[in-house]
Structure formats: C-alpha cells, structure tokens
Amino acid sequence: MTSWIGFYGFDVMGDLAFGQSFEMLSTGEVNYHISLMQEFLKIRAIFSRVPWAFRILQVTMLLNTSFNKFRLWMEEQVKTRMKNEPDKPDVFSWILSDYQARQNKTQQDFFNLMGECKLITIAGRQVKIHSCTWFKQLISTSDTTSSTLTCLLFELARQPDVFKRLQGEIDQCFKNYGDDIPGHFELSKLEYLQACIDEALRLYPPLPSGVQRMTPPEGLQIDDDLHIPGDTIVQVPLYTMYRDERLFKCPDRFIPERWTTRRELVTEAACFTPFHIGSFSCVGKQLALMEVRYVISQLARLYDVSLAKGQTPEAFTEGNYDTFTIRLAPINMIIHHRADSKSEISKA
C-alpha cells in the first residue's frame, strides 16, 4: 500500500506541475529516473546533519552517479517542456513564464529553472525542501499527502469501529448530494473526517524531527529562566512532542475523538502545528488536505480495509524511519467492496 500511494503522489504532482502523469499507477512500477533520485536522496539524508561533509562527498562517484543521470533526464524534460506548451496551464507554466520574461538571461537563470523542476519531481517522493519561495513550499504538499494517506489507512484498518463511524459520516454527506459528488468545501465540513486526518498527522508527522530555525541576533528568551543565544540553530522534534503525555493524554493511541468530543485528551492544542506556522508555514496546506479528504472519502464510501494476513502493526510502525521526512515501511492491506456500496460504485 505504501508503494501505491507513493505512485499516486508522483502521478498527481506530474499532472499538476508538468501537465502529464508519470503513469506509475498505470504501470505499477517506479519510473526509472525517479528511482535514481530516490537512491540519491537516501544518501543525502544520511548527511543532512553534516552538510559540509555532504558537499565534499558529493563530488565523488559514489554520491554523484545516480544524481547526474537524474539531472540529465531533468534537463531533457525541461527543454522538451519549453518547446511544447500544454493545452491547459500547469504549475510549471508559471515558472517557465517567469523565466522567459527575464531580459538577458544568464546560465544561473537556467540553473534556477532546473532547480524548480527538481523540486517539483522530488515533491512527489515525500521530500520537503526548505525555501522562502511560495512555490518550493507548495510542491512539498505531496509529502504530507502520501504519508498521511498511508498512515491514516493503516490506523483505520486496525480500528474497524473508527472506520465504520467515518463511513457513516461520509455516507450521509454523499446521500445529501444525490447523484452529485460533494466538492472540497463540503468535505472540509466533515468533522470526524478532519479529526481522523489530524490524529494521523499527530501520530505520524511527515517531518518527524521538525525543521531547523535560527534564533535572531539578539537571542531568544523563553519564560524567565531560559535564554538561547543569537544565531543558534534550534529544532523541536514533532514526533516526540506529539507523543508527550504532558501534551496529549494516551499519546500513543489513535483517538480521533480527542479533536471533537473528548478534548480533555488534548492538554496543549497550540503545540499541534503539522503544517507549521508563521512566514514559513506550508502554503500548500489546503491542496494537501483536499487530496487526503477526497481519497479517503472515496475509499471509505466504497470499500472496507483491513490488514492482510501476516501483516503485523509492529512491522509497519517499527519499520518507519526519519530521513528528514518520514520514510514509511511497506504495508500489505486488503481492500474490498463494501456489501452495501454496490449501488454507489457507478458514481465513483
């Protein structure tokens, strides 16, 4: 299931960003050039805490072979895309328009264009790149989408009672719209659906270690007894914070009701910021939520889910690890039509 949802993330990002899908859902296989990128990113994650070492080792064949192949493929995609404007504008259309409008273009301008292309592609693979530009933050939403969808389905498969309640809310929503399918605005008003999404984001934050920030030159005063010197890198691990029993009661349990009818289970709601806050918050938040709500609502309306025989919860939870973003272990699930959904399948 982890792979298929990853394919979905890539294909959607391809459609939105480049006007064409990577066709991974159709083929059931990882695009060769994407696999090169994934291989490179595994190595890069190891050196994320010592960037100076990464820059030194990047010049070696060990680190550079896969990435150079990926870079050449990207350059080919950009040049092809520049010659073939799609019928409908995609995200890359705006980036390309800005590039083409520049006077006296430099080689660095083209490198920047290539960088945007790389970020779009990497986004489909659950990697978020820090940047102050809105676009680089926007494309990282598929990071949140892929991991949240997988982890939410995992928890719903483990807890049939929760899934049944969610199905009831979604069934009622679709029933109210007859032959139509409710849009994003209508789905955003489903309280229990949002509670399930929030609980998945709490237990499995897409960025387990959080992000780094630098204190201002004058330093940062916290309460009366703690002063952090200026120009100091600080980091708050979200995974640890969200499972702190001082902040969340029963922190290791998936309880969507903590966001609805059992708010006493949340001691400090202000610390829950899966999309971050302030000037560096994720501008693609609504796009990510739109995707998650749509996919989960369609799956819950038409299907039941359960863990496959031999699939233990521990194999999934203990197999996940942090490569700046959460890298999910494989998980096998059974998805079958609901007994009461046959009349609804034609609407999907």
TrEMBL record:
Any GO molecular function: iron ion binding
Cofactors that this protein relies on: heme
Statement: the UniProt record of this protein carries the keyword Repeat: no
Pfam families: p450 (PF00067)
Gene3D superfamilies: Cytochrome P450
Keywords: Heme, Iron, Metal-binding, Monooxygenase, Oxidoreductase
Superkingdom field: Eukaryota
Family according to the record: Belongs to the cytochrome P450 family.
Protein name (record): Cytochrome P450
Organism of derivation: Hymenoscyphus albidus
High-level lineage: Eukaryota, Fungi, Dikarya, Ascomycota, Pezizomycotina
